């Protein structure tokens, strides 16, 4: 006969093991964070570069700096501190604020941090994509100005993709349009011309590109009302044209949705934000959940967990 004590021990062992598999959502609780861009660098750690919501919950104008977080086990997360603030951006908006969704890329032995920020008080008409550079993924970033050859519509939500051959691609978009192009080796200029991305159905904002096997995936938010979903498209080329594949993650409970997909230690993850800590759509918190593919390359619906 199996004793009650043995059953209880087994239950506690199982639940403890399950609990230690990953952190609970939201996994950053000491500050508000949004728009997570997740990357795995050569040191074997997974890094997340989010934007930072600031109280009071009145809008996105107070977003004024960036932190970076990392883990090596998906359970314990380290806050490396602030890596960039609007005060560090000499060409930026005098009043600060408006430091929106960023991304980071590694090439040429350096880390390149991309962020949208206005260059003038008229923030709505002066957006630029700034670039800060460091030898390290978590510190030492120095602003190097803003990207050249980028513009034409909403200059927000920059996203970088480095292909297997080392070629870097730059994506950005908002207001229903998404553009992309190859980057020069200096990682600050477009090589050639930007190309509007074709085949994206109901594109709103938040592009993110990754590769699985021989297929390229572009995820983005849609225009569903009142809350956006995350949808995805696929292509055999990183610059499209794309084939819409539909919704793979439902709305997150706040007005915007923005995320990234990354593979870490043989498991794919979807990073996103919600408003679980604050119940305020402008005070968001970053989360992650496992992502799975079907045999045909389609993405299974991501289940949001606590």
Automatic annotation (TrEMBL):
Keyword Cell membrane in record: no
Keyword terms of this UniProt record: Carbohydrate metabolism, Glycosidase, Hydrolase, Polysaccharide degradation, Xylan degradation
Indicate yes or no for the key word Hydrolase. yes
Q: Which GO terms describe its biological process?
A: xylan catabolic process
**Where does the record place the site Important for catalytic activity, responsible for pKa modulation of the active site Glu and correct orientation of both the proton donor and substrate?**
157
Q: Which residues form a coiled coil?
A: none
A single Gene Ontology molecular function, please?
hydrolase activity, hydrolyzing O-glycosyl compounds
Pfam families, A to Z? Glyco_hydro_43
Q: Which family does it belong to?
A: Belongs to the glycosyl hydrolase 43 family.
The record's PANTHER family line, in alphabetical order, gives:
ENDO-1,4-BETA-XYLANASE, PUTATIVE (AFU_ORTHOLOGUE AFUA_2G04480)-RELATED
Designated name of the protein: Glycosyl hydrolase family 43
Provenance organism: Polaribacter filamentus
């Amino acid at each position: 006969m199996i004793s009650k004590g043995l059953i209880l021990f087994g239950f506690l062992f199982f639940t403890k093991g399950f609990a230690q598999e990953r952190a609970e959502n939201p996994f950053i609780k000491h500050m508000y964070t949004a728009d997570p861009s997740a990357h795995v660098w050569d040191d074997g750690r997974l890094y997340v570069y989010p934007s930072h919501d600031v109280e009071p919950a009145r809008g996105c104008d107070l977003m004024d700096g960036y932190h970076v977080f990392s883990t090596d086990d998906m359970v314990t997360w380290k806050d490396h501190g602030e890596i960039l603030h609007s005060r560090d951006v000499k060409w930026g908006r005098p009043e600060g604020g408006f430091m929106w969704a960023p991304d980071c890329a590694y090439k040429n032995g350096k880390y390149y941090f991309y962020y949208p920020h206005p260059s003038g008080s008229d923030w709505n008409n002066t957006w630029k994509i700034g670039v800060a550079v460091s030898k390290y993924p978590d510190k030492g970033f120095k602003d190097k100005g803003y990207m050249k050859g980028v513009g034409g519509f909403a200059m927000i939500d920059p996203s970088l993709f480095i292909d297997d051959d080392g070629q870097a691609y730059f994506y950005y978009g908002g207001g229903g349009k998404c553009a992309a192009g190859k980057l020069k080796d200096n990682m600050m200029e477009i090589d050639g011309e930007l190309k509007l991305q074709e085949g994206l159905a109901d594109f709103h904002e938040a592009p993110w590109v990754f590769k699985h096997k021989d297929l390229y995936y572009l995820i983005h938010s849609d225009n569903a009302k009142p809350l956006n979903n995350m949808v995805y498209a696929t292509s055999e080329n990183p610059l499209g044209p794309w084939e819409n594949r539909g919704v793979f993650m439902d709305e997150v409970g706040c007005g915007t949705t923005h995320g990234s997909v990354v593979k870490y230690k043989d498991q794919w993850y979807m990073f996103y934000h919600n408003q679980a800590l604050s119940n305020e759509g402008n005070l968001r918190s970053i989360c992650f959940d496992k992502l799975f593919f079907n045999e045909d390359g389609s993405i299974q619906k991501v289940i949001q967990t606590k």
